[in-house]
Amino acid sequence: EESKEQWKGITGRIDENIIRNNVKDLKDSIFYVCGPPGLVDAMFSVLKGMGIDESNIKLERFTGYS
In the chain, pLDDT over 70 holds for what percent of residues? Predict the structure, then answer.
């Protein structure tokens, strides 16, 4: 809201549709997910549900969240 530039990119929660529409090679891509534990766990579930191999999913949970 404070920026002088208007954002023209994707907004909202990342979901399967956004991933499928923006990642050309799902099988060989590496997915790095970091953030609060709830977000990381939710994204891990989405990626696993898409058939992404666990070895291609890297996770980092921020500490200090309950």
Answer: 95
> Which pTM was predicted?
0.83
Q: State how far the Cα of 64 lies from the Cα of 61, in Å rounded to an integer.
A: 10
Please give the Cα distance from 35 to 58 (Å, whole number): 12
**Is 66's pLDDT higher than 80?**
no
Q: How would you classify residue 64: left for phi > 0, otherwise alpha for psi between -120 and 50, otherwise beta? A: left
Residues 6+ positions from 51 with CB-CB distance below 8 Å = 26
